[in-house]
Each structure stands twice: as structure tokens, then as C-alpha cells.
Amino acid sequence: MHPQLRKFKAGESFILEGPSSIRVVSGEVNSLGVKMLPGQGIVIPEFKSLPFLVEKDCELELRVTGESSLKFSEEYLPKDWVELSEKLASVDRRFTVVVLGDLDSGKSTLTTFLANVLLQRGLKVAVIDADTGQKDLGAPGTIGMKILDKPTPILSGCPEDSAFFVGSTSPAGLIDRSIAGVLVLVNKALKAGVDAVLIDTTGWVYGREARELKTVMINALTPEFIVAIQRRGELESLLRSLVTTSSEIIRVSAPKNVRARSRSERKAIRSRVFRKYLKGGKRITLSMRDIAIQYSFLGSGGELDEEKADLFQRILGGTIIYGEEFEDFLLLVLDERSPIDTSMLFKLRETVANKALRVLRRSDFKNVLCGLLDKEGCFIGLGILEDVDFKLRKLNIYTSVEERKIAAVQIGSMKVNREGMEEGWIGSWRF
Fold this sequence. Notes:
8 helices; alpha+beta; Rossmann fold; 35% strand; 25 strands; 23% helix; Jelly Rolls; 7-stranded mixed β-sheet; 3 domains
């Protein structure tokens, strides 16, 4: 990208799409509440865009991939966003804000703008990114939290202070972890003495589970403010279920020029972030006897005796290569050639009575996304469970985290390889 110098008049607003960069030569511009003076600038990553307002006549050095990367706009930010920021800045007590909105509605942009305004008014601000799929803070599959020390137009450039591993880029089927993660991080932020907590939620707003996630989370948090970004009243069904809460519901409009990301772009963004968190990794071996394993029955039961293994093999019509059993569960791992027939599984369930049952193949343990915790139970990084040595009861994990720091492994629900490419999901008989 070759640099180009362009002059702009005070009051003009425009959107710059990445990959691109901007540097102020003279004058003054503003992006999401952050003023940029001569000599200052910012790099905008691929698939990201930022709005700018020219506050003083200026000359800017731009590096863009094409003319389409720079778009003039009639609107810098929606007027009600600015009004909302003023309202929150005048609050004289500690408060929590939950930001709701559909996909590509501007939730992250609004959260960033509000955080910057509050910071500049002297408040101590924490941002919690509860969107496990499209992250600004933290790795995909996690909920991230950052206590900001300075305003920034792009939160993705800030390393998170704390994170909670959910184990999937979608909260579907995992709403308990998603809610718990937000509560844990809000509690950490409040203990750190913040004045305001801003929670950027997922764009998953349709369907029973989506509604339950948002409703239960809000009931558990009882935030002072719920901000709903809407285009055509798409959140009203959800909001009606919240009118009995003590929270103040504030409706704001979506920006007119939000760029919608395609599914492939979202996946590419996640892969890039996965690579970042796995950079410099190496393969390590952890004994199931020496660490805790969470989100899984693996490693928490006794090895299956031969008599029961023979019985279960006759029922399933396959070869069991590993098994664990405890009072409340049975875990069986079959070789790759063994069928997993639903009728046989029902027959096996009848045999083991009230035990929870998990039947998997060895391949289900290949390239599984993991969260790694230290002795304090704090998230310290991602890992890829590449395979399990069932005979020696050892996990082979690829990670950039130092082996000596790992006290627990949390098993995720999706598969990712060393290059950060997603490889699908664990089967319905999850472990």
C-alpha cells in the first residue's frame, strides 16, 4: 500500500476499512472518542473498519488497498449514541451496562466508544467481551475482560487481563458456561475497583436458547443499564421479558454504514486470532494423574475392568480401546472401525442404568480446542489436544503455555489445528 496525502474539512466524516492505516499530518481527527493529533495514527486490520470525524481542517497520510476502503459518510456516529455516552458519564455511582444487538449491529463499536468517553471523564472502566465467536478481547471460544488504562479505537489491540474458557465459538448448548463466564469476570472487575463495567454480548438473539442466554444472564447480573441496538425493533420480543427487572432499558439505533461480515470472513478472523494464541507453541505431554481435567469425564473415573469391557463390547458390536467408570458415568472409547449404532447405545444405557454415558472414537480426541488453567484456576492460554495415550493415561497438547504452569485442562467442544484452522465439532456423544 503506497501512502497518499489527502486534505479534509472540519465536520467531514468518513469510514476507513482495513487493511489500511491513517496518520495525521496536520489538523485533528477523532475516532470513537479518541482524538488524533499531528504525528499520531492507527493501523486498521483486515475485516475491521473505523469511523472518523474531522474536528479541524487536516491533512492525512492514508495507506489503503483501494478507493473502496475510504467511504465518506453523512453520519459519524448515531446521535443517540452520543446522548447515551453523556448520560452514562453523568452517573454518580458504580454501574454495569449490557449491550445487546443482532449480528453486525455495531455492538463492539458502541462498547468501545462508550468506554473511551467514560475513561476521558475520569472513570475506571472494564470491558467484557462475551462474544465467543467474534472477539475483540481474548481468544475465540473464551470470554475476555480488560480494565482499560487509556482510550483506544480498536480493543483487539489490547491484551485481555482475564478470560474464561467456554470451549466453543458458539454459545449454543453451552449457555451455562457463557453465563458463568460473564459473572466471574464481572466479579473480578468489581473487585478491582472499576466504576463501570461494559459487557459486549453475542449477536445471537433469535431462538429459545438465545433468548434464555440473554434473559438469565441479565437476571443474574441485574445491570443498571441494558442498551439495545436495533434496526427495525428486532429485539423487542426479548426486551418485553425484561421489563420487570430493575434495569433501565435504553434503545439506540444501529449505524447506517456498518459493514456486514460474511461467514468466511468471520472464520478467517478467528483463524488469525487462534494462530496468534498458538504462536511459538510446542507439543507437551501431561499425565491425567497429575492435572485436573474439566468439561469432561476423561481422567476422573477408574479404569474399566475386563469383564465389563467384554460385556459392553458384545452390546455395542465394536472394540473398546479404553474405558472409565464411576458412580455416575461411563466413558467408552472405540476404535475407528467400530460402529456407533443408536439402538445399541440405548441397549447399553439400559445396562448401565442411571449412569451418564459417553461413547466416542479415538479420532474424537484429535485436535480438540482446550483451555489451560494455573493453580489458582485462572485461564492462562489455549491448547490443542492432539491425541491421548490411553495406555499411559497421558494427554499430548500443542500450546505456547509453559508446561510447569498448567494445573488443569478444560476440554472444548470444537476442533482446531496448529494453523488455527477450524476442523468441526465433537460428535453428539461429547466427552
